[in-house]
């Protein structure tokens, strides 16, 4: 009998070539499946995640699942995995779930956060965990701009030009900026995010914060459906996959 | 004419084999002197620091000085150094000083801080910046213990057995623990610190926090002058050289 295990996983993306397995590269999936293979006496065990993350992107609440014939309790799984995973991956929780659960297809919504360090001084301790943007910013204008992403829109202007998915309509439930001294944290909850979407939104909102564009540009950009008109892709190190929602109950709506 | 420049320097110690130059190793001094050599057309320029730090130990406020024939302003020095230093070293300030100033010999006191992350869960984002100690702790007992280090004592029990310095009497002006949720920060200001002294003090106080020893043990340990009786050396990643004081004015006494 196999059991399906669901894990909430945090990782520091700094030293990974992203989430997904790539030959010859150190990836989160590769490290995780390596541990599972050892635990299953050399048999391959595939994991499925809620979605990929790019090189340098972090996760506080990535969710993965896998099927296993081993009869360990969730607590034993957590201990065994944490004992063998490298120290830049941590399993925060393990639950047994049923075979209808899928880390990717059962997801109802996701939360991403993006940290920007705005102090004039470079901070060596934050360099892998925040984007550094040492310019005077109009946070009010940024908040106004960020609010305009809420609702259902075609996000063609705010995803990588390489995106192959045809349907670029997504719904953003929550979009806000928390300021704590020189640290700005962008928070987005939505039913789905396209490739580079959060990073392009942040890159564009930072241009608004610098006064290069007015907040109302967001509406025009959404309507234009042209990636070339939006701002630059903000760097990977500020981005965190924060949480994946599998039911509507816990939605911060 | 040469000028003496004083710099306050922060570094993330994670990827350094300590402060001091060692052949074939990446060190803070080595990186810094490499930049100065390029700026001085291949001529060696030595830097002097307030003291060394070990592999993995961080600095928020290390102080160094060097002599230079170049006529850059302090602001120009700061820009030029930060542009060329690797991203795990940052120059926080530069001042021109007179030739009687010496980063090490003019120091009146130093402040060290030590971060302990006490949550049950491993935090991948703090692994290089805090020691992880997931045990229930009696913070009140620890505070009592830490207070007993204040004053002038022979610290033989609290320095590496390899210490060659004969005079192990030092004065601690301030010793306290700041708690912020699961994060404990030890803060020590003293007129000097012996090799591994802060890390052995922290290792011993954590044993007291776990109830393995009573706070009053500190007095007995100080009197015993025997390193073998104190606790273990806490790991490098929690330790920060926080500030170096060159005058009595700014002392937090």
UniProtKB/TrEMBL annotation, chains A, B:
SUPFAM superfamilies: Pseudouridine synthase
Residue ranges constituting the Pseudouridine synthase I TruA alpha/beta domain according to the UniProt record: 9-105, 146-247
Binding site for substrate: 112
Enzyme Commission number: 5.4.99.12
Superkingdom assignment: Bacteria
Entry annotation: catalytic residues: 54 (nucleophile)
Broad class of enzyme this protein falls into: isomerase
GO MF: RNA binding; tRNA pseudouridine(38-40) synthase activity
Keywords from the named record: Isomerase, tRNA processing
Isomerase listed as a keyword: yes
Function of the protein: Formation of pseudouridine at positions 38, 39 and 40 in the anticodon stem and loop of transfer RNAs.
Protein name: tRNA pseudouridine synthase A
């Amino acid at each position: 009998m196999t059991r399906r295990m669901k894990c909430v996983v945090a990782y520091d993306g700094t030293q990974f070539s992203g989430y997904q397995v790539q030959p010859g590269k150190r990836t989160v999936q590769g490290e995780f499946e390596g541990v599972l293979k050892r635990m299953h006496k050399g048999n391959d065990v595939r994991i499925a995640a809620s979605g990929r993350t790019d090189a340098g992107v972090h996760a506080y609440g990535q969710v993965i699942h896998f099927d296993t014939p081993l009869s360990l309790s969730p607590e034993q799984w957590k201990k065994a995995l944490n004992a063998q995973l490298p120290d830049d991956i941590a399993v925060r929780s393990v639950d047994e779930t049923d075979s209808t659960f899928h880390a990717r297809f059962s997801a109802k919504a996701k939360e991403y956060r993006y940290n920007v360090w705005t102090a004039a001084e470079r901070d060596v301790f934050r360099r892998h965990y925040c984007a550094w943007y040492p310019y005077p910013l109009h946070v009010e204008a940024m908040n106004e701009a960020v609010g305009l992403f809420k609702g259902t829109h075609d996000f063609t202007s705010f995803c990588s030009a390489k995106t192959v998915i045809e349907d670029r309509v997504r719904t953003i439930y929550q979009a806000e900026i928390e300021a704590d001294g020189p640290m700005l944290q962008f928070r987005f909850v939505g039913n789905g995010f396209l490739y580079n979407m959060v990073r392009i939104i942040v890159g564009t909102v930072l241009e608004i914060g610098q006064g290069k564009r007015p907040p109302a540009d967001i509406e025009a950009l959404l309507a234009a459906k042209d990636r070339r008109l939006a701002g630059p892709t903000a760097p990977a190190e500020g981005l965190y996959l924060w949480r994946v929602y599998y039911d509507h109950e816990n939605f911060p709506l």
